[in-house]
Amino acid sequence: MTTQTNPLIEYFPSEIEEFEAGVKRFQAGNWDPTDFMAFRLRQGVYGQRQPDVYMFRIKIPFGGMNADQLNMLGKIVAEYAPLNKGHVTTRENIQLHHIPLDDSPQIMRMLASVGLTTREACGNTVRNVTGCEIAGVCAGEPFDVTPYAAAYSRYFVRHPFTQSMPRKIKTAFSGCSRDCAITGIHDVGFLPVIKDGQRGFKVVMGGGTSIMPRIAPTLYEFVPTDEYLRVTEAALRVFHNSDQERRNRMKARIKFLIDRIGIDEFRKQVEEQLQEDWAQRSFDPAGLLFIDDEEADAPSLNGNFASPGSEPEFDRWLSTNVKSQKQDGYHTVTAKLPLGDIQAEQFHQLADLTRKYGASRVRLTHQQNLAVRWVPENALYEVWQQLNEIGFGDAGAMEITDVVSCPGTDSCKLGITSSMGLGRAISDAVQVIDKEEDALVRKMHIKMSGCPNGCGQHHVADIGFHGAAAKGPGGQVPAYEMFLGGGFEDGDTRIGLRVKTKVPAKSMPKALRKVLDFYKAERDDDEVFRDFAARVGPESFEPLLAEFKEIPELNRESLDMYIDWSKTAKYILERGEGECAV
Asked: Whole-prediction pTM value?
């Protein structure tokens, strides 16, 4: 049974009633569309490129969910999502697509019944707070950051000045110095530290991807846990009061402010804020902490489970998808979700699995996967069998076959290319590459985004792509720009180096193979790809990709080049106005 019943973020029925009334007012033509857009974004309802349907973003703070919530998501997806699936994002949300506006209030009520919300999942707010999937069970952590990540979510939701900031705030809490939540590419990031016996955080601020990728500089090396909310509020107040950032919403993220004035001046302004009257009260988070005794619901270590045979596939899965917990005898298992998609029935199957084998808890990951915690060692074989039946039993989590993609032109107004279509093509291509069993290639990461904004986190992949349009003799061709040598593991966050060559979308699998063959032929012994790319430089890859610059005349033989992956019509760049900056 799931012992945690109180919602992580409080539910107010009046908010949904207000939203329902707002929808009717808008549909009656009595609300300015731009003002209504800002209103619905704060409720997690985002416009799609398709008219009259919406993307519904569900916040999953620190990625934590329980079995009852999985069941409810399966029910909602079956009843309301035309594609019969939910999509796990790189920021540990779950998104539903093609939802009619009229269905939104009922979906919100269904979510609220199991403690989930869409409140401030979109808009210029403090967005979902991401975390490490092994926080609380990691042997290397100074302390469990989960309660503090939850307290941060609770504190800033509905906060008066976070409802309309210059731009959105993305936050991550990592569990240890390995920085598994990639704090460096977030607006605000926290890494746990114990100093003189006191718990606290290293606070970084001003990271991001998109058109000006930045690794977040350190704001403070140590902030005690009873001060981290005060310090963060001071920093967000500085950002909130920054008039210059409001003049150009495309350059209004906090990274632009810090880049413009410098982290030292920013820190000075934070400390000035800390002298204001608002900051003189207690910010002890004790009353906001989310305390959930997962171990109390963990399966017995003495359960009677099936014994494994001599199956190489199981042994490989154990080596890539299973981590030992600091609690003796228990393990965290990663279910590898193809491109982050979960079908309606799979939600129910995962709920059943975690009730039997995993304390009725799961964590979503920024790799678009799902982690089941508290699995007894002698249950691992059964769990692998069950995941295979569900469709999530493949080995290779956090390896080259674990491809990440945003939805791209499948639904996003800002999408330039079908990144999901390319994701499927690249997934097929790397399955062949994986069988070649090159250990250094296997540990690489491939991520793609349908536009430069970086929702697929392509900037921190070994090989990353973002969508672009190339010009051919017969018109526009879907294409990608390539970034090489990014990284995010073991505390070594790097922004990939851009290669100055656009590669047509249909040529990307071939281009990938050429890049990998070059790496294998020219690397030093044990040289990982990100170090190789930094050593040889992006210009070394340009001759390899030169053959893709010439786009053929449009004819029957070349028509496929002019059609994007998973599409049937000739490509035309159709990019709408995004809603992130509203």
From this structure: 0.96
